[in-house]
Structures are given as structure tokens and as C-alpha cells.
Amino acid sequence: MNFAVIATGGKQYKVEQGSVLRVEKLDKLSGVKDRKITFDKVLLTDDGKTTTVGTPHVSGAKVSATVLGDGRHKKVLVVKYQPKSRYYKKNGHRQPFTEVKIDSIG
């Protein structure tokens, strides 16, 4: 099993070759489709025999991916309510994301 853990957008993702994942929106690639990108912040790699843990990053390791598109997640509703005081606030939020497909781990 060949996988890696990458850091992007303040979050960490476990990725395998061929997997599709939604990461926090990459501003530089807004609206660009089928573009190749490289994630340099690789925290851990595993090739099935050896596991390499970075301090904090694995030197020389890169994960290449292809941008599939942009989008927004489902709406999350936030409600503030205080009984007996006629206080009611409702707010919605949709988080933007960039969908990428992992091409290779190296």
C-alpha cells in the first residue's frame, strides 16, 4: 500500500495514488481545470515496506495531482436562539473547495 500524508489549507489529508479529494480552495487555481499541481508539504510517506516520517516535512518527497474543478460544500446553518426574549439569529455558510485527483506519490 503506497500512501502519503500531505498538508494544505491548514489541514492534513491521507492520499493514495488515484484518489480524488476535496481540499480547501486553492486561490491560485481558481477556475483552472486539468492543471497539474505539486504538494511539497509531505508529512509522511509509506511504500508498503518502509514508513518515513518528516520533521516536520519529508525532504525530497512530492505529491503530484490534477485539478478537477472548484465548488462549494453543502450549506451549514448556524442558529442562535434565546427563549423568552424574541432573540433569533440564523446564518448560513458554504465553504469553497478545490477537487483534485492524485496522480503520483514520490
Report on the structure:
The structure is a single chain. By secondary structure, this protein is mainly beta. β1 and β2 form a beta hairpin. Strands 2-1-5-6 form a 4-stranded antiparallel sheet, with no helix packed on it. It has a 4-stranded antiparallel sheet with strand order 3-10-7-4, with no helix packed on it. Strands 8-9 form a two-stranded antiparallel sheet. The chain contains no helices and 10 strands. It is elongated, with a radius of gyration of 18 Å.
Write the layout of secondary structure elements.
Elements: E1 3-8, E2 11-16, E3 20-24, E4 36-39, E5 42-46, E6 51-53, E7 63-72, E8 76-82, E9 87-93, E10 96-105
Subunit structure: Part of the 50S ribosomal subunit. Contacts protein L20.
Keywords: Ribonucleoprotein, Ribosomal protein, RNA-binding, rRNA-binding
GO biological process, one term: translation
Short key terms for the protein model shown above:
mainly beta; four-stranded antiparallel beta sheet; 0% helix; 59% strand; Ribosomal_bL21; Large ribosomal subunit protein bL21; bL21-like_sf; ribosomal protein; bL21-like
Widest beta sheet: strand line-up: 2-1-5-6
Helix content class: under 10%
What is the mean pLDDT? 92
Count helical runs: 0
Compressed to H and E, one letter per element, the order equals: EEEEEEEEEE
Reported for the largest beta sheet, the result is: 4 strands, antiparallel
Return Rg in Å.
18 Å
Distance from N terminus to C terminus (CA atoms, Å) equals 14 Å
Q: What is the overall shape?
A: elongated
Query: Spans with pLDDT under 50 lasting ≥5 residues?
Result: none
Pfam families: Ribosomal_L21p
Function: This protein binds to 23S rRNA in the presence of protein L20.
InterPro entries: bL21-like, bL21-like_sf, Ribosomal_bL21
Protein name: Large ribosomal subunit protein bL21
